[in-house]
Amino acid sequence: MSDRYCVFGNPVGHSKSPAIHAAFAAQCRQDLSYEAILAPLDGFAESMRAFAAAGGCGANVTVPFKEQACRLATRLAARAELAGAVNTLVFNGPDILGDNTDGAGLLRDLSTNLTCRIAGQRVLLLGAGGAARGVVGPLLDARPAALVIANRTAGRARELAQRFAGPAPLLGCAYPEVAGLSFDLVINATSASLTGELPPLPGGVFASGSLAYDMMYGQGPTPFLVFAGSHGAACLADGLGMLVEQAAEAFHVWRGVRPETAPVLAMLRAALAR
Ligand code: ATR
After folding, report:
1. Start and end of every Quinate/shikimate 5-dehydrogenase/glutamyl-tRNA reductase domain (predicted)?
2. Residue 273 has pLDDT above 90, yes or no
3. In 133-243, which ranges are E strands?
């Protein structure tokens, strides 16, 4: 029987992870199956334990279970502990390893697919929820000149900055406080695009030559990318590349092999355009 993997979410019907992992498995000649499992909102722990007990080898975890998965894991990878969230689980008898590949996925998409340099650059991160928390550590590891976290609820941004306080210049603040500053890379980690909204961002934050990156993706450009494009950002990118790269990193955690992401990203991009 094939090794079994899945993604837990609620909702999960829209998930592209089964298609991505099926493509990776075919490419790397790995004998595995990967399904989407809708866990009840109050029943994630039961769903996860049932899947592991039935022989499941590993799982991805998506909205809204990433923080719960972090609490349920018996062991955490350092990057998951820092993020306070888990998107990848590895089952080994009673042992449940929790990992987080979101930050690595973002960094790989930025640096490899988009050839964006982060070292020495001024980076603005929008949002202070789970999505933002998962990428602060890897962004700081890439040694930006400064990282500013702006959030609608300024206290959450300050807390997040405090959590990662270290030698790198790092500031948490409210949106009006970034007026007058400009950045080489602006990353939208808010969930505003989900509801067609735009974070209240001052228009002048995009330096000439800057890259605007939205962790969300859809058929057309998100409201944030439309705004960025009309306020001076030179390059626009959505989060489809991050989705594929975080999946590749999870696949590597599970199988010890790293799939080629470019053909899978191209396949998803073509499907999205249809
Ligand atoms: P996730 O795990 O997807 O990050 P979350 O923890 O609920 O979800 O965080 C959502 C983030 O998007 C938060 O930073 C939220 O801002 P607040 O902390 O002020 O709530 C941000 N967000 C959601 N909708 C937004 C909007 N319309 N404008 C600006 N920020 C928004």
Report:
1. 117-193
2. no
3. 146-150, 170-173, 183-188, 206-214, 235-237
